[in-house]
Structures are given as C-alpha cells and as structure tokens.
Amino acid sequence: MDVNALVPSLWASSVEREPDGVLSVGGVSVTELAREFGTPAYVLDEDDFRSRARAFRQTYAEVFGGLSGGADVYYAGKAFLCTEVARWVRDEGLHLDVCTGGELAVAKRAAVPGERIGFHGNNKSVAEIRDALDYGVGRIVVDSLEEIDRVAAVAAELGVVAPVLVRVTVGVEAHTHEFIATAHEDQKFGLSLSGGHAFEAARRILDQPDTLRLLGLHSHIGSQIFDTAGFEVSARRIIGLHTRIARELGVELPELDLGGGFGIAYTTEHDPLPPRTLAAGMAEIIERECRADQVAVPRISIEPGRAIAGPTTFTLYEVGTVKPVDLDGGAQRVYVSVDGGMSDNVRTALYDANYSCTLANRASEAAPALARVVGRHCESGDIVVKDEFLPADIGPGDLLAVPGTGAYCRSLSSQYNHTPRPPVVAVRDGVARVIVRRETIDDLLALDV
Ligand SMILES: *Cc1c(COP(=O)(O)O)cnc(C)c1O
Asked: Entry's PROSITE patterns (predicted)?
C-alpha cells in the first residue's frame, strides 16, 4: 500500500502530489494555502467545478437534443452555494435550484436571471413566494395542495401568472445500486401519485389559468445513485401520470423534471457513471416510455448538486494530537485529531458517511497505520474519516486533506461549540482567493444580545 498515492476519482482534477511530496491544487501548494488562509479551510478547484457543470449542460443538451430539443440542468444550490459559485453556474449556462429566501438572495446577488431559477421547498412562506415571483423565477415547484392556493393568491396580487411544476412522490427511493419501489411513500416531500393527490394538484392548477401555468411534473428519487434502474421505474410512473393528465385533462405538459441524486466517489468503493452514460440511459428510458404512451417527449430537466460540487473541494486541516488506542485482539488504531470536525463536515456523524484522506504537507516513507480522523468537538461521534491508513509518523503540525467535501459540508456546517466556520478558498491558474471568508469569534458574538 502506498499511503502517498492519490486515487484520481476522489480528487479535483488539478490536485497532484508535487515532487517534494506536498499536495497542490491549481498549481498552488497546500502549505502555501495553509500559511495564507489558515486551517481548516475548504479548498475548491474552480476549473474543476466549472468543467463538471459544463459537462452536465453540454452532455444533456446533446443527448436530449434530438429527443426533446435539449434539456436543462439545474444546479441544486443546497449542495453548496455562495455568490461566486452562483456566478459560475450562471456563466456556464446552467439553471439554479434554490429552496429558501436565503438561497434566492444569493442567486439575485449573483444576477442569475429569474427565468433560470427553480424554487423548491415543502413549506415556502408567502414572503418567499412573493419574492420569487417578483424576481420572475422560471418555476415554482409546488409541494402541497395548500401551496397551490398560496402561489395563486400571490400571483393575483402581483398581477402575474406563476409558472409551476408539481412535485410528485412516485414511490421510488434510490440509493447507490439499489432502489426500493413501493405503492405509497411515507415522507414529507411531494404529492402522492398513488393517492391521486398529484393528479388533483394538476387539475386544480389547470383550473386557474389566470394565475397559474402548469409546466410539468417533477420527481426526485434519492441520492448517491450509481445507475439508472431507479429512474426506469420512476420515469414509467411519472410519465404514466403525465399521460393521464393529457388524456383526462386535455393538456400535454411541456416539461418534466427528473431530479438529481447522481453519485460521486467518496472512497474507492464508489464508481460513479460519467454524465454521458447517465444521460444516454435516461434518454432511452424516457423515449421508450413516451412512445409506449403515445405522448410527445416533454423537455427534460435534471438537478445535480453533489455530482457537480462534491469532487471539486477538499478540506485542509492541521493535525493537533495523535493518540494510539489499543483495540481488542491486539490491534491499534491511531486517533488523529484535526482542527475542525463535525462543525465543518457533519456527514460522517449524520449519515455514517465514509471519507478518505491523505497526509498533505509531505510524502512519508513510514509504514501505514490504521487511523481515525476526529474533530475537536465535544462529541465522541465527532468523526471526519472513520478508517484510513496514514503514515505512522503523522504528527502535530502536519496537514491533512479530505477530498469530496464540496457538497453538503459547508452548506450543512454549524458553529457547534462556538466554532467559527472555515473559509472557502477557490484556486485557479496558480491563484488562490477567498470566495467565502472565515467566520470570526466577533461574528459569533455579534448575534448575542
Ligand atoms: C437534494 C435535491 C437535489 C440534489 O441532490 P444531489 O444528491 O445533490 O444531486 C435535487 N433535487 C431535489 C428536489 C433535491 O431535494
């Protein structure tokens, strides 16, 4: 085992180990980054983010070009959003999903055109709906029957027609290479297909043409998905509803959103599909189902979050303490404590997620030792990387890099234990710059009255 080797699928494309053993990204070494910006820090490869975004947009446009005149890619902002990232999304020609007034405010500040914004959420406030319609968002994804009236009332007040999609629960829950298909779905999102609520929602929306315009149906079936088997079932079901609406209500809806959830590699156990394979698989399914139902193929949209943001970023930590612990059976585990933890990456504690990591400030010839990387918080579950082999000579002052932290780490971060949150540093062409600054203790104290 070579503890100095980098597995390319886990890292942003420009990350390398230099001949002197130091990790670099976009031509900037991590020792330089640590000196200039401190640790912990989220380090983001801008070109990698842009090229993943572009790959989704171009591939889906090409693959669906002949079928439905193209496809729209909505970056799911909840994975990671800040003003600069929203600008990249805008510049690369993607659309953007937001699900709160806060995320919408970021999109507005980044001048993302309203028509390219999709607004999600199962409990949007009237003020948020007003704000969204006032900005001219391209779609509001309706998540309950109450919300239909709420959106219609705000649209009437503003004198606009609100473009809406209906979020449908299709009874498919997909994760990794598995999916579960049931008749009913016991969850808060969406309107049920089997219970008839989704059809009823479509009927009610179509009944109010002065205030609402029904663009289409929406389904999102899971996360960390590695094949199209779940989409096969969900597409059949949702196109079934699309067809029923055409037959019984006389409207062939122009759009269909298949959601996100495309997986990435956190460790070598994951083997994600390239966007092209994914797009081709989805196109084949959609074409087949629409042909079988004799309806035109609606314009397709998808909503990747993790698959764009996740691999672009690693978290850079400094090691503070190293503690060997004896395990039953005579083995040892080294607990490596870093200067962050569950406040900057809660996924291990929350989802039992697996990450990997590497010694970043030098290469080492020392033997590999079984290690667990833990944070500095007052919880024994404050684990960043459950199991990893690190060189046995790792010690205080070393830098450690954890890849795959671009999605659902900063966005799910907290100030637990009054810990100021790390900055996001974007690197490109040998230049590093802060795109979200580090929080300070003063920021935290400023909230106390
Ligand atoms: C979370 C979410 C996404 C993005 O999921 P990823 O796993 O990050 O791709 C897309 N659409 C909806 C509706 C979501 O809730």
From this structure: ODR_DC_2_1 (PS00878), ODR_DC_2_2 (PS00879)
145-158 vs 197-206: helix crossing angle, rounded to 10: 20
Gap between the Cα atoms of 420 and 264, Å rounded: 28
pLDDT in tens, 53-107: 999 999 999 999 999 999 999 999 999 999 999 999 999 999 999 999 999 999 9
Instruction: Express each pLDDT in 344-356 by its tens digit.
Output: 999 999 999 999 9
- Of 82, 290, 357, 378, the catalytic one is 378
70-304 under CATH 3.20.20.10, yes or no: yes
Q: Kindly give the distance from the C-alpha atom of residue 261 to the centroid of ligand 1, in angstroms, as a whole number.
A: 5
Contacts of 194 (CB under 8 A, 6+ apart): 171, 183, 184
Hey, which CATH number is domain 8-45+311-445, 2.40.37.10, 3.30.1490.270, 3.40.50.300, 2.40.30.170? 2.40.37.10
**Ligand 1 centre and the CA of 302: distance in Å?**
9
